[in-house]
Amino acid sequence: MNAEMRPSNTHAVPIKNIERELICPICKELFTHPLILPCQHSVCHKCVRELLMLNYDDSLDGGSECSLPGSPRSRVPSPSMERLDKLVRSGSISSPGWRRGSVTPRVTTIACPGCQHDIDLGERGISMLFRNFTLESIVERYRQAARAAVAIMCNICKPPQQQEATKSCMDCKASYCNECFKMHHPWGTPKAQHEYVGPTTNFRPKVLMCPEHEMEKVNMYCEVCRRPVCHLCKLGGTHANHKVTSMSNAYKILKEKLAKSIHYLISKEDQVKTQITGLEQLISQTEENGQLAERQATEHFDRLFETLQERKSEMLKSIEQSRSRRMGQLKSQMEEYQGMLENSGLVGYAQEVLKETDQSCFVQTAKQLHVRIQKATESLRTFHPSADPCFDEFVLDTSREETLLKELCFGGVPDAPMIDLSKSRVYNEATIFWRLSDDHQPTDQHLLEYRRLGGPRRSPTQEDGVWQAMECIHAPSTTVSGLDADSLYAFRVRTCRNSVFSPYSPEVTFHTPPAPAFDFLFNDKCGFSTERLVLNKRRDTVESMAGMAFLLAADRVQTGSYVSLDYIIGDTGISQGRHYWAFKVEPHSYMVKVGVASDTKLLEWFHNPRDTSSPRFDHDSGHDSGSEDACYDLSQPFTLLTVGMGKLFIPKTSPSSSSAATASGDPANRALPMPQRLGVCLDHDAGRVYFYDADNMRCLYERQVDCSGIMYPAFGLMGGGKVQLEEFVTAKRLTF
Questions:
Q1: pLDDT, tens digit (0-9, with 9 covering 90-100), for 565-575
Q2: Side-chain half-sphere exposure of 118, counting CA atoms within 13 A
Q3: Could you tell me which residues come within 8 angstroms of residue 531 by beta carbon, excluding any fewer than 6 positions away?
Q4: What does residue 675 show for φ and ψ, rounded to 5 degrees?
Q5: Sequence-separated (6 or more) residues with CB below 8 Å from residue 480
Q6: Among 169, 495, 508, 704, which residue's CB has the most CB atoms within a 10 Å radius?
Q7: What does the pLDDT average to over 57-75?
Q8: Of 139, 126, 169, nearest to 24 (Cα)?
Q9: For the chain, which domains are there?
Q10: Within the chain, what is the greatest distance between any pair of CA atoms?
Q11: Is residue 684 within 8 Å of 539, Cβ to Cβ?
């Protein structure tokens, strides 16, 4: 080691402090014959075997009760590492993960317990892995430091005269006392040249051998795989095209890097201690602040409970007072009526008074008696309870308070997100995007809810008006599947941070298309004009360039000659069913025709010579109309709608067609503002095509079309123009 590296030795870490680095991640014990995995993590040899055998057992039938040697169900003592290496290399035994000729599937992949990466051991299995001799030596030194009082005894001396070993021979793999070492390694013999070290129980080979070429020594280092290799590996093996360097160079470079890294870590010891102190303070503060927050929350809830208890007592007292008052009034009235029953002699007395013949005496007595009888009669005619038994005025409405309590949360409630209408798209699946506030903090998750508001078709799993939730969304977007066609859906979203939910975003509604999405890309082969049309690499955008060809036709344009459209179609046709697709026409487009066309019409468009001599020949209408306002012939196997210069032009309506234009006779009223997104729905079975404003799913125009052949999405462009397909339409076709 060079001079600048030597000072690091003064800060050597005691070996007893490195135990955590010497523990196998599987068995949680000190490494025993560790192997180096390709990911540079080390695992005990027996643990790797058990992992392979466990995977092998899992690959068998679940009801099999067979037990393999070394498996957890039938474990036997393992022989020494050297014997295992010899048996595996000679082929006497093989790891079940790579047994040749086995009828069961080979299991050669294990998950590294350190980094969880899948490690493929290939057909050679365990034998392709290097033994980590350096780690073995460190483990052995650790064991010796742990049992310093236990001496290593001479392997030659026999008890009771067995002496303590003073040397260990790496060639003989044995330990000797001084006398035995001199006896077995006499001067002048080959054994005298053996390598000897201090007493140890860890004997490793002098030279590291290549696991793939068992008779070759490793003498190079592969910088790509970062592992030692032999010259055969470099010449014609798996490392033939890899960059390799000499072992001495790799040793020097790696040792310098490791020494520098260790020196850097040691030099930062004070910084690490400071950071540890800071972490301890943070842990203490976290514990104290958490307990304080619990106490404060408990105090707040206790005050709420006290307030609720006070209000409860006051309201129950009011009810009790009203009940007592009403009971007294009703009881008094009842006593009065009972008195009327008890004074029934009043009637008999009145009858006797009627027998009086002396007029003056009768009037004197009957006057007072009549007043009493009149009161009793009036009370019977107009009976009214003296108190109302209903307590409706004491009915308590706590719905608002319950809502407030449910929304009770800590300070720092996240702001409500906003659903992004410009990015969100709804087909038979909905892709919903939302925006968070500009000053928002990181959120834990999002919750999206949606409900069906109505439509002609209903899924048995979706009830109108019932919110359905999608939880644990970690990105500001998600996809909702299984939506009904031609239905209205509402969406809302809220975010969660530290278990605290934000308010819901304002609800937004989307109308699903009348049919499932039809996926296709632009066809770059069938009749595609590379001179006038530019197609991007994804084949989802086509642009018409008013270039040289258009300028060369300027003379004919001046004399009234018609410059034909350049057509492009989808690469997938429709032969049955209902399908919907959407696209965007750039507002600056001069003229674009969009719709559908059959394969028979495409042959005429793409293969017949273009006749531009007649100034009245309309190439896309199929007849000499000379006017865009002419009604389409119902037998035509195509339908194209004209879009351009920021307008959408509705053709004259026919008995089989309908339009959103209010006055079909006036061309000015048939020019509608160009929608941001256009949608087309083809019902092949019914022979009908529909054009929609894709943002609100409002039908702009529909008509009958001859669907006798295979129908294709068709587009015609003239002058400058651009058409871009919706991402949802192309998503299934664009895979990367």
A1: 888 999 889 99
A2: 6
A3: 547, 549
A4: -65, 155
A5: 429, 430, 432, 448, 450, 470
A6: 495
A7: 41
A8: 139
A9: 249-381 (no CATH), 418-456+463-512 (2.60.40.10), 533-608+635-651+670-735 (2.60.120.920)
A10: 176
A11: no
